[in-house]
Write a structure and sequence with these properties.
- It is a single chain.
- With about 300 residues, the protein is mainly α.
- The protein is elongated.
- The termini are far apart.
């Protein structure tokens, strides 16, 4: 994925904007970033929701449940695989973020372009790359855990994938549709730039990405990108903690273990292992003492 990204960036940077500023090239990079976000969302949602459904279909889930691992440990091990997949997308994103910051830095002072002026003067290159990268890691974890939860809760493979896609895509798109209807058909003018209703756009995770990449229409409602950035991390940090905590707490129940959601197998395993270690130690000391006595 990194090679096609590098080729696309090279073509975009090498193109002649033809207007004396970086606007067209920045627009191309913005489109590439949005497309990559869509690929990440669909890929992680599909893979995370299918992990346990595939185990059920192949009959290997029962083998996992027969091991001394708790449901929490099984889920965490599976999540490590999702995290390794997510790393494939990190480098292409960083390439696009840094390329966009570099292109904006080539804007002439006498050239007028709202986004470029915003990133170059008000936001700053480092701030743009930092916010974009932090948003990437945060949303990867958020969407992965919600999809993993859906895949655990729904037994059917097709239904698990459909539920996960409905949750993640609905979370991203539905608030925009609702607010668009309120604005167009119910004349809710608080949604005008600078209006108080713009906080409602934070109900969609996509707002932070759009506000960072297309600040001229979205970000000026808050006068600073740090407002939606901090608000989004507080709001969706709670959602991430809830999805992760719910999934791990009820992992045994979702996996179909007989002990139920409040199983104490982890403590039982630790106590049993400790007992085995004590017995082994006593046998070793008994053998040493018997050897000394024989001598």
């Amino acid at each position: 994925l990194e090679l096609p990204t590098l080729l696309a960036v090279a073509l975009i940077i090498g193109s002649d904007p033809g207007y004396g500023y970086s606007g067209p090239r920045e627009d191309d990079l913005r489109i590439a970033i949005f497309v990559l976000w869509g690929i990440v969302l669909l890929t992680l949602t599909t893979v995370a929701s299918n992990i346990f459904a595939q185990e059920r279909d192949h009959g290997t889930l029962d083998v996992l449940l027969a091991t001394p691992m708790t449901g929490r440990d099984i889920v965490l091990q599976k999540y490590k695989g999702i995290r390794r997949l997510a790393w494939i997308f990190v480098l292409p994103f960083l390439t696009l973020f840094i390329a966009k910051a570099w292109i904006v830095g080539t804007v002439h002072d006498d050239g007028y372009y709202m986004d470029a002026t915003w990133i170059r003067i008000e936001m700053g290159y480092v701030t743009y790359v930092f916010i974009s990268t932090a948003t990437l890691f945060f949303y990867i974890a958020l969407f992965s855990w919600t999809a993993l939860w859906a895949g655990l809760k729904v037994k059917s493979r097709a239904r698990a994938m459909f539920t996960a896609l409905a949750v993640n895509l609905g979370w991203v798109i539905l608030p925009w549709l609702v607010l668009g209807v309120l604005y167009e058909y119910f004349d809710w003018r608080d949604l005008d730039p600078g209006g108080n209703g713009w906080w409602w756009f934070l109900s969609s995770p996509a707002y932070l990405v759009l506000a960072t990449e297309a600040f001229e229409d979205l970000g000026h409602a808050f006068h600073s990108i740090w407002g939606p950035f901090v608000a989004s991390f507080i709001l969706y940090g709670g959602g991430l903690a809830a999805a992760r905590g719910r999934t791990l707490k009820r992992a045994n129940h979702y996996l179909g273990r007989l002990q139920g959601p409040h199983d104490e197998s982890r403590e039982w395993i630790r106590a049993y292992e400790h007992k085995i270690r004590l017995r082994a130690r006593d046998r070793v000391w008994a053998w040493i003492r018997s050897t000394k006595d024989r001598r």
